[in-house]
Write a structure and sequence with these properties.
TCS_response_regulator; Rossmann fold; alpha/beta; Sig_transdc_resp-reg_receiver; single chain; 5-stranded parallel β-sheet; globular; CheY-like_superfamily; 5 strands; Response regulator; about 150 residues; phosphoprotein
Length: about 150
C-alpha cells in the first residue's frame, strides 16, 4: 500500500494516473493534509479504529500541505517507534534548497521534484515504484527494534 499525502487534486490525479500507467497496482490511500496523514498512520481522528499495525510500503509526501506541513509530518513519523523506519519520499514542486536540506535532516529517504511534463512525471513515478516497491528492502517490525 502507498500513502500519498497530497493536497492538490490535479497532482493527486496525475500521480494516480502515472501509477496506473506504469502498472503499479498497489492500493493507494490519499491523505489531503498533514493531520489526515498522521491520523491514518496512527489510527486516530477520522481513522480511529483503523489497524495502525498495517503500514504503507512507502509514503509519498508533499511539503506544502494545509493544517500541518510535510516537514512536520516527517518529523512526527521519524519520532515515533512504529513509523520511524517507513520509507518516505518527498514528492514536491519545491525547488528551495532549504526544503531539500530540511527534508533529509528530518529523515526523508529521497527528495523528488515533480516534473511539469506528464511524460517526465510518469517516468519519475515508474522509477520510484520500481525502486521503493520492488527492489528496496525494509526491516520487518521484529528487526526494527534492534
Amino acid at each position: 500500500m502507498i500513502l500519498l499525502v497530497e493536497d492538490n487534486e490535479d497532482d493527486e490525479v496525475l500521480t494516480l494516473r502515472a501509477l496506473r500507467k506504469n502498472n503499479i497496482a498497489n492500493d493507494v490511500v490519499v491523505a489531503r493534509d498533514g493531520e489526515e496523514a498522521l491520523d491514518y498512520l496512527f489510527g486516530t481522528g477520522a481513522h480511529a479504529g483503523r489497524d495502525a499495525s498495517i503500514v504503507p510500503q512507502i509514503i509519498l509526501l508533499d511539503l506544502n500541505l494545509p493544517r500541518l506541513s510535510g516537514l512536520d509530518v516527517l518529523r512526527r513519523i521519524r519520532a515515533d517507534e512504529r513509523t520511524k523506519l517507513l520509507p518516505v519520499v518527498v514528492l514536491t514542486s519545491s525547488k528551495e534548497d532549504e526544503d531539500i536540506v530540511n527534508s533529509y535532516s528530518l529523515g526523508a529517504n529521497s527528495y523528488v521534484r515533480k516534473p511539469v511534463d506528464f511524460a517526465q512525471f510518469s517516468e519519475a513515478v515508474k522509477t520510484l515504484g520500481l525502486f521503493w516497491l520492488l527492489l528496496n528492502e525494509v526491516p520487518s517490525p521484529r528487526r526494527s527494534t534492534m
